[in-house]
TrEMBL record:
Keywords: Coiled coil. Residues 165-199 form a coiled coil. Residues 36-47, 204-217, 249-266 have a biased composition (Basic and acidic residues). Residues 32-55, 61-80, 204-298 are annotated as: Disordered. The keyword rRNA-binding does not apply. It comes from Leptosphaeria maculans (strain JN3 / isolate v23.1.3 / race Av1-4-5-6-7-8). This is Predicted protein. It comes from the Eukaryota. Residues 61-73 have a biased composition (Polar residues).
Length: 298
């Protein structure tokens, strides 16, 4: 693209109005051109050898008279023409600079258009990526809400479990308290049973001895009297005690049997609540029943 300015092709100057100063400048140019052509023609004619000095003198006189007659207006006109020429040169320089600016502006515009296309492509890519990220964020948000709901359900379940565990712990604590009470009662009963068994073991040899003496005495005759068979309902109780009825012996044995059965019941209760097991080696020995103690009651 050429940067040379051509005023004849400038569309801004084709239809504009011509000012009076420009018209005067054009007339002056035509007049000066005519005078120069006249001088050239006169210098080339054959009569110029004789009449040239006269013609030149007459022309000079006429010019001097004309200059004297027109004087100040011509000077003013020349100044205006000079100003118009300077203004025209300035305008031409400004137009050339404007054309250069327009050329650089076109280059800048082309570069800006390329940048704009690149920016539009980047914007499209960014918009697509943003849409994908929005969809992904929506999915993640939905998953987060679902996890929060599941977590709330788990918290409710854990709360129910904690309440159940607390109730079971209270029940276990109450059972442990009851077990301790039963163990204490069981220890008391075991102590009582041991004491009764020891008393029974201590009395058993004496009872057997007395029964043997009684049987021996009943078999031996006294002088000329036949053997006296006492009723089986009485038992010898030793020195100073005399005979004791069989009813009293039976009642005593019944009391011992009931006490032993009560102790056995406490042992069964103890085995149920955490006491001695039936097959435990540390279980106290089973006490003998009145029937196993021998035939001292007979």
């Amino acid at each position: 693209m050429s940067n040379i300015y051509d005023a004849s092709r400038d569309p801004r100057l084709l239809n504009r109005r011509v000012s009076n100063a420009e018209k005067t400048f054009a007339r002056t140019k035509v007049t000066e051109t005519t005078v120069e052509e006249t001088k050239v023609v006169e210098s080339k004619t054959p009569e110029a050898t004789d009449t040239a000095p006269k013609t030149v003198a007459a022309y000079k006189n006429s010019n001097s008279n004309r200059e004297q007659a027109s004087g100040a207006p011509q000077n003013k006109h020349r100044k205006s023409i000079q100003q118009l020429q300077d203004r025209t040169k300035d305008l031409l320089a400004r137009i050339a600079s404007q054309e250069a600016d327009n050329a650089s502006l076109q280059k800048t515009k082309a570069a800006t258009a390329a940048k704009l296309r690149n920016a539009h492509t980047t914007l499209t890519t960014t918009s697509t990526s943003l849409t994908s990220l929005t969809v992904s964020y929506a999915k993640r948000l939905e998953e987060k809400n679902r996890l929060i709901s599941d977590n709330a359900d788990l918290e409710l379940t854990n709360s129910d479990f904690r309440n159940t565990i607390a109730a079971q712990l209270r029940t276990i604590s109450e059972n442990e308290t009851q077990i301790r009470d039963l163990q204490k009662e069981n220890r008391d009963l075991m102590d009582r049973l041991g004491m009764l068994e020891r008393e029974m073991a201590a009395l058993k040899p004496r009872v057997e001895q007395l029964d043997a003496e009684d049987r021996t005495r009943m078999r031996q005759p006294r002088g000329d009297q036949p053997p006296q068979w006492r009723s089986a309902r009485s038992t010898y109780t030793g020195r100073g005690g005399g005979y004791r009825s069989q009813y009293e012996n039976t009642r005593e044995r019944g009391n011992l049997a009931r006490a032993r059965e009560e102790d056995r019941g406490s042992l069964r209760t103890r085995s149920r609540v955490g006491g001695y097991d039936r097959n435990n080696a540390n279980r106290p020995p089973r006490s003998a029943s009145p029937r196993e103690g021998g035939d001292g009651g007979k």
